[in-house]
């Protein structure tokens, strides 16, 4: 009855696990569902809520899933504002009533890629920010300057002084980027390929349906 | 998932965070199930939509009205996400540490929180969360349905194909065609422009298709259609194919096979060489310069049908121009390139970056002198183009010497008007037909 959970998705597995014990009765109580939402969608939204309730306790923004739930009439994916850490826009995937195995595979691949991307870029941007701060502090210290300028504003280095840091950071992360690039290209191609297959499957099904209707 | 929820939780939420949350879960289930159940049941009955902010708002307000056991707890220190504001390096260290995945931790079962603390924690997070209602609503408004509206499609496709850049590319092609000797053939000219335009659209779309997460992280490119989810990757690739095939076909059969081959080669060079190379080596700049040089060559070959000295001269001019243009631009983007993992000269070899820009500014003077030698233009051309060539070389020298943002911006903006003016001057000084007339030979 529960949707297939994605390993590595904090919302899904933790919250659903707790919900399953709380509300196993409620699943059958259609009156608690709004409109024509499926039980799985209901569970997903509630999982989101439970998770977000606890999320202020969680310090890492990687775990903070958006509290957004799309309107029940919508049959499309929804895309959100850029994440504060990773700058990537999260997508809330729509699960159709009669999702085929291929569509499910595509959705799961996209979900997993989204999480993988989110983790990489959040980590990358955080590391960058942290190391940049450390670099600025060490340079200011070497210069004998404090962290604050006389005006009270935070002291910074100019672009030329920062250039050493940019160069060092880039070369330090080169290998990491090589692996990421390779994986990203693979995933991107796979997603697009499956999107194509799903589109063809839909067209084929529509044609078959039309054929059946004309025969009948 | 058949595995027990506890093992799942511990696998997923690492470190003490996972332990804390897991512990809360256990306590919530075991020690105050009634309270939770009560809350949830009440929420269900008030529910109209699944909007999270409604849930929190109603729970907070309605429960007070119903005089449930919602004690007004003193508001705790706001648990703000540290990543929403600038963080100190110390905190950052702690956060980064948390982000690193570690093997299944030993859960700190010894953490004893008594029930009162647990309730305080819940209500603290509820109060905190309800205060966040305003933010949640604002954030929710920024969520967009990923439904493609046909009305928006032209705008989206224009941005996907980088229509402004395509227009510049097409104009350099037209300059190449116009500068080529021989009678001006309007149908051929229009077919060349159309074919080159379509090829450029295709190449730009594929480039954006490859670069979605990188574009998201750079200010210059974060509003592109694929980044914003306005179009799916499948549609982007389909659009690119629908541009590339007719474009190349038009060039091959409507113009000549040489131009078609150059078109295919340029698409390949841009999408399969330049785009991936941007993240591997600084050689991408030289490859990119060749990509920029090919369109005027295509214009020339469309008009003449062969790759002669004039074609190479034009290609050389565009090739040289790319360096002051791009190197100056990249100077101001070093932080974004470094963070995004782009290998650019401005980051890895700053001195080389400025040297190359200056070198190619001076090369433009040399190439404009070669133009009359190769019978592309008259000798007037190097003379009248000298002022603008000297000016860009001067700015290139300033950039080389000063190496600051001001000089890089000046050089970049100069390159934007320098090229169209340069090509215009070239056109006005085009060698008239029957070339060599300025050498004083008698005309037959």
UniProtKB/TrEMBL annotation, chain A:
GO cellular component annotations, sorted alphabetically? mitochondrial inner membrane; mitochondrion
Among Pfam families, the record links this protein to: COA8
Membrane topology listed for this record:
Peripheral membrane protein
> Any idea which UniProt keywords this protein has?
Membrane, Mitochondrion, Mitochondrion inner membrane, Transit peptide
Question: Where, per UniProt, does this protein localize?
Answer: Mitochondrion inner membrane
Question: GO biological process annotations for this chain's record?
Answer: intrinsic apoptotic signaling pathway; mitochondrial respiratory chain complex IV assembly; protein stabilization; response to reactive oxygen species
Keyword Mitochondrion listed: yes
Family named by the database record: Belongs to the COA8 family.
Supply the name of the protein: Cytochrome c oxidase assembly factor 8
Species: Equus caballus
Q: Report which gene this protein is encoded by.
A: COA8
